[in-house]
Amino acid sequence: MKKSVMSLIVIGLFLFNITFVLAEDTNITGDETTYFGYWKDIFMERNSMEVDYFNEHITVSNYFITEEISGDTFTVNFIFTLDWAKISIQENQLIRPSDSVIKLDKDYVKRRSSSDYDRINKIETLGFASFEEALSYINQITSTEGEVSIISISVGIGKPSPWGDGDLYAMFQVKKNDTECVLGQINLVTKEEEHWDKACSVLEDVYKVEEKKEEKKEIVCPDLAELPPDFCENGEETKIFDEDDGCRIGSECHKVLSNGRKAEIKIMPSTASEKAIERLGELNFTVEFKEIVRGKKCAEKGGCKIIEEGLVPTYVMTGEKKGKFLGLFKIKGKITTEINAETGEILSIKKPWWAFLASKI
To answer: What region, left, alpha or beta, does residue 333 occupy, with left being phi > 0 and alpha being psi -120 to 50 degrees?
Structure first.
C-alpha cells in the first residue's frame, strides 16, 4: 500500500466563500457507498474529528473503486477548508488484495491503513487572519520587501509523529533581487518557520492577490450532451467529476475482464461497425462482444517465446460478401473482422481459405 498521496494542491479560491454544488452521481454502487462509510469512520477516528467538524471543513468531491489485477482500491477525493486555505487531498485504501477474491471488511481495512496516511489536526483557526497578513509576516521575518510567492500549502510536513504533525504549512519564496531569493516554510497555525538564502527559481505562485469579495458564489454545473444509447452497453459507466467544483465533466466506460483486468471501452459498437464498413464495405455485419486472448511473440535463438499475452475486449464483426469463384460462378464468402474495443485497432480480418480464387472477396 503506497503512502497516501498528499501533495495537496492548493485551490486558488481562498478569497471567496464558495458553496460547492456536487452533481449527484447516480452510478455509485453499493460497494462504493459501503467503503465510503468505512473511510469516513476511519478518517474521523484517525484525526479525532466529530461529525460537525467533518461537515464544516471537509467537502467530498467524489469516490470510486478501481479494480485491477494487483487488487481493488477505494479512492476518495476531498477538500479540507480552514479559514482562507483550501487543500485538495486524495486518499486510497486497498480493499481487496491480489491474492483474494473477497473484499476486506471494515476492521481489516482499518488495520491495513492505520499508518498509511498523514494526520490532520482538528484546527479551529489559522494563525493568520488573512492571506495578506501571512505575506506581510513572511516579509517581516525574512527582513525583505520583495514579492512573496506561496509555492504550496501542505498538511503535516513538520516533525514526524509518525507521519507529520498534522498542522498546515506553507512553502514560500521571497525575491531579494533579480537573482537572489529566500526560500522557506512556515507553520500557518503556530507561525514557526525556517528559511534560507537560495538562487531564485521560476515558480508559479499558487495564490494570487485579488480584490476580496464577500458574496457567496454558487457553482452551476453545465448540462452535458446526452450519450449515445450504445455508449456503454458492454461495460459499466463511470462518471468523471471536476475536483475543484464537483461538476460532472464526462463519463468513461469500463469492463472488468475475466482475468480481473479493468479495461476502458473507448469504442462503441456503432463506431466499430463504421470501421469495418470503411475497410470491407457494407456487409450487414452482426456485432458480438468477446474477450480474445492475444499475444506478441519474439524470435530468439533456439525458437520463440511469448513476451506479452492477455485478454483484449474485442468486437467480432461477421458478414457475407458476394463474389465470383474463378471469375465464373457466383459465390458468397463469410468475412470476420476483430476490432479492439479499447483502441479501435483492426486486429484481424478472416476470409475463407479459397478467397484468393474468388474475385471481390
So the answer is: beta
